[in-house]
# Entry
Amino acid sequence: MQTEVGFDLNSIMTQRGGENFPVVLRAVPARPRAHLLAVYGFARLVDDIGDEYEGDRLAALDWIQEELLRARADDATHPVMVRLQPLLGDLDVDDEPFLALIEANRLDQRKHRYQTQAELAEYCMLSANPVGRLVLAIFESATAERIALSDAVCTGLQLIEHLQDIREDYVEKGRIYFPADEMARFSVEEDDLAAARAAEQLRRLVAHQCDTARGLLSRGDSLVASLSGWAKVTVAGYAAGGFAALDAIAGADYDVLAKLRTPTKVRTAAHAIRLVAPREVTDAKPVRAARDAAARWRRQ
# Structure
C-alpha cells in the first residue's frame, strides 16, 4: 500500500511554505521543532490522501491508521510515519488526535455539505482542533483551559482555509464548507462559488464568515498570554497567520474567487509580534529570537 499511496517525505514537507502561518521557526529548539514537523507531516499526508489520492481513499486511510499502530511499535514503513515515531515515544499522547485527523478525511469522502455552523464546527473538531492539542502537548502546556482556547483558534484557522479554497473545494472536489442555512440567508447559490469573481451576496457571506473566524481567533490572545517561551512564540505564529489571512481577504473586498488571498509575511510578522509582546522577563529570550526570525522571514 505504501508504494501505491506515494506522497514521499519531501513532497509532503515542502508544502509547509504554502501555509498561512510559519509551521515552525528555525530558532525553535531541536526536539520540539522535530515534533512540530512530524505532526505537520502526518496531518499533511492524511489530507493529501483524502484530497488527491487516485485510488481507494478509504482503504488508504485505513492503511494510515494501521501505520499509526506500527509507529507506536517503532515499526512504521512510510517515511512520514517513521518521522512520527520519536514523538510517540517522547510524549504522553494517545492516538485520539491522530485518529480524529484520519476520520475527518473519511468524512470528506462521504459528506460534502453542512447545514449549520454548529455542524461545520463538529467537522473542525476532527479536522483542525487535534493539531492544536498536539502542539500544546509538544510544549507540555496542555491544560483544560488552554485546550478550549486552542480549539477555538484552530476552528478559526480552518474556517479561513475554507474561505481561501472555496472554488477549489466546490469545482474540483464537489465540497462546500459554507453552512447551507447561511448561504440561504445571504441568497448565495452553489453555482455562485464557481464564478470568476464573487458576487455581492457572496462577498457579504464571506465577510460574515470572516467575522466568525476573527472572533474565534481572538481567543488566541488569551491563549498566547497564558503560555511562555517557545510555546508562546509558536502559537502566536499560528494565530498571526490567521489574522493576516483575514486582512488579505478584507483587503480584496471579500472576493475570494478572483485570486487566492494569502497573508503577507509583513502582516503575519506584525500580528505575531503584537501577540508575543513580553509580559514576563522569562519570555524575553524567545521573544527577541522570534522578532529576529520574523525580520529575516520578511526579507526572504
